[in-house]
Every structure is written in structure tokens, then in C-alpha cells.
Amino acid sequence: MPVTEIKKDIYWVGVVDWNIHDFHGYSRSPQGTTYNAYLVMDEKITLFDSVPAKYQMDLYHQIRSIIPLEKIDYIVCNHIEPDHSGAMPFLMEKIQPEKVFCSKLGHRMLLDHFHQPDWPYHPVQTGDSISLGKRTVQFMEARMLHWPDSMFSYIPEDKLLISNDAFGQNIASSERFDDEVDLAMLMKESSHYYHNIILPYSQRVTAVLDDVAKMGIEIDMIAPDHGIIWRSNVPLILQAYREYAEQRPNKKAVIVYDTMWHSTEKMAKAIAEGIMEEGVSAKIMALKQYHHSDVMGELADATGIVCGSPTHNNGIMPLMADFLTYMKGLRPVGRVGAAFASFGWSGESLNVLTDWLKSAKVEVVEPGVKGKNVPDHAKLAECKELGRQVARAIKAKVAEAEA
Ligand code: FEO
Questions:
Q1: By percentage, how much of the chain surpasses pLDDT 90?
Q2: pTM of the model as a whole
Q3: What is the rounded CA–CA span in Å between residue 145 and residue 29?
Q4: Band of residue 214 on the pLDDT scale cut at 50, 70, 90
Q5: How far is the centre of ligand 1, averaged over its atoms, from the C-alpha of 72 (Å)?
Q6: 345: containing domain
Q7: Same domain as 336, residue 234
Q8: For the chain, how many structural domains are there in total?
Q9: Is 225's C-beta closer than 6 angstroms to any atom of ligand 1?
């Protein structure tokens, strides 16, 4: 992928990972991703961020198409996760930079990752700035967006925010900018990324956005470390992040289930009908077909989460345990839900699901529905009624938020 001049004398020199569908082992990335790095040509030539170790030669060729690597003076490491720092040992050897800038926690993490105490670290904190010549770089810590070390770099002369993972998306594309791709697809991928990576730190997102607003900095381009660069829709993505973080109630429910012989599936459909009868949107997702990260992507704008599993070995199905573990870790707030379960003889799964939902801070409509073997008409009617109850609880949440 050719390097791209994103601002005068500022180049995207990143790498497109066209075929990665498994992002960091926990989220799907069906459209691939990119690892963005940026080269600023000024009196002090500066490289912002890098790429995974396996792509270090791709980064080398990208930079080499502009300058020899040894001409680089500074490296800024906004985030130490290996998809942005893996190439550091290689770069340090080739470049031998005068200074490496990172946050204080980034300094510790670079030591922990690469065990190189002699690199020329210059830890910085919010409020610190450096001159590159014609340009300044202002640093802003963005702790827990999404690691403790995370940091933004802002270049006021170019109104450019280099934001590491924040505002990123997993999109492999020959296009670099938001006005060159389908906006609906871009916003969907941004939401999917947020709700699988940044969601637990939503309070921090609001705080960082408030800090940025208070500082009164002008931003006309946001260059994240994954995916597409924002230049025509900067206010849109900033507002979207506020809304993602806010998690306002919405009249929508996700019904997620696993099934062995389709009884739980029949119950899921009946519950969805009850939800829809009350004027609330419903999305049914079978865990054999949908990855847990896709369910979280769908739950982004859903206030209801209804979980179903047959009893299996006195517990729940393995894919449901996987999903509930994943969802609980992402700490969505303000959700209401319910459990439903089929069983053959012992029937523990309803209680197991209910306890899981409660432990994930979901307000549970109890007692849920438990059906022995194949549900008959009466049992499906019970499921429909549970759907109506969940929908009413969702509508109450929405009304409360709008009051
Ligand atoms: Fe893209 Fe947190 O690394």
C-alpha cells in the first residue's frame, strides 16, 4: 500500500493487514485491519507509532520510500500494545533515534516488553510539549483508552490528533480517509470496535472528551492507529464516542442463545415475538452462528439482553458461558434482561443464566421461563409473555432516560 501524505509533510506509513479476521484473539475483524504509523518531516523527523513485529519490514519499506530510516530523530510511542510497538527493537537498531517519547506508564511498559533500559526514553505527561521545528507536539495522556499507557499526540499547527486506538476501526482498505469509504459501514465498524475494546472504559472516554473540549483545541483530522483517518466527519465521530460512552437506553433487545435440539431456539423465537408485539425491536442471535464480539456489536444500541441455554452437564452450554464471560468483562451498563432455558431432567441452566446476568449488573426480569424437553403451545405463550415483560422494562428505561 503506497504511503499517503495526509497533511503537508505528514505521511501515513502504516501497513494494511488484509486477511486478519481474529483481532487480538477476542474480537472478530472480518474486514481485516491496518496498523497506522505516521511520519512527520520537520527539522526533527518524527515517527509516530509502529506495527507488529511481523510487519517490521513492511514498515521499513514504507519509511524507506520517503527517507532512510537513520534520518529519523524521534520516535513517539503513543501505546505499547505489541500491534503498535512490536517493531520497536528493529526500529531502535535501524534508527538509533535521539529520543523516544512515551507516557510514564508507557516507559514502564516498554521496559517490561523489551527489557532495554538504555533506549533514550523521554517520558511525558499531559501538558508537556516538544518542538519539531515548524511544528509542536502536545501530549495528552489517555489512560485506559484502552491501556494504562495510552496517550494522544496533538499537532496544533496541523490541527491533527494522533489518537492511537481511540476512534479506530478494523477496516483493511486501499482508501485512507473517511470521505473515501461508505460512511454507514465506517460508523458500524467504529461502533463494533468501541463496544468490543473500549466499552469498559466509557467513563474515561467522557472524561477525555471533556478534557479535549476544555483545552479548546481545534481538530480537523483524527489519525487513529487502526483503519480509516477522520477528516470530513471529525465532529460526527467525537459525538458518536460521547453517545457510545453514555449508553442511552434504546428500544431494542438482543435474544442470544445456544441450542442442542432446537427447543431453546423455539423459545427464543417466541420471546422475540412478545418483544416485537410491544413495539420493541428484537434481534435473535444463535451463538453457533455469531461470534461473541458480533453479539456485543449488536448490543451496542440494545437495552435488552435475553439469554437462553439448555441445561448441559448441570450447567449451561459452553458457547453461552463464553459469551457471558465476555459480556461481563466489557461491563455494559443500564441493561435489562431475562433468562430462558430448556431441559430434559435436571434443569439448572435457568438459575445459572439468571445468576450470570445479575453478576453482569443486568436488571433481570424474573423468574424467566424454563421448558421441559420440547415446548408446547402453552410454554411458547409463556415465552411470549416473558418477551412482553422484557419489552415493557426496556420501554420504562427509555422513558426514564427521556424524562
Ligand atoms: Fe491497537 Fe491497544 O492496540
A1: 98
A2: 0.96
A3: 19
A4: confident
A5: 23
A6: 254-395
A7: no
A8: 2
A9: yes
